[in-house]
Amino acid sequence: MKKATYIVAGVFFALATLAGCAEAEDPSPLLESGNLKAAVQGKWAIKKIDNQLCREYSCNTNYYVGTAQDYFEFRADSAFLVYKENSVQQKICFKADYSRKGVIKLNTASWVGDFVVEDKGPSNMVLKNEFKGRDPAAVFTDTYYLAK
């Protein structure tokens, strides 16, 4: 009986050890630069946007909850952000570049931002953009929570 117990314990130990050695699969191969464009194209509803400002280890975050009319739309070489600000519909048009792995580069005539795809599922996506303003100690981080 003791021998059987040791064998069962040994098998469980071996399985646990082998499971720990298994290589983790890339959770989102669609985010490779060649597939990123296809993976994100279409209209994504804005669930919420977190706007964070950090200065000298002190951060303030504002939250925007999306409405039914708010969306981020990605096309082959452009993108559109539509949302309400102070009861006024805003539409920002971007030129889009999908050539870097996991990053969507959006730019307008006066601004360029790298939106890192933090998470991507079949019906949800999280984009994060970090940038500095005129004050070099200030770091702005915008996080977009999107749904199809």
UniProtKB/TrEMBL annotation:
Top-level taxon of the source organism: Bacteria
Signal peptide start-end: 1-24
Keywords: Signal
PROSITE patterns, per database record: PROKAR_LIPOPROTEIN
Name under which the protein is recorded: Lipocalin-like domain-containing protein
Organism name: Pontibacter locisalis
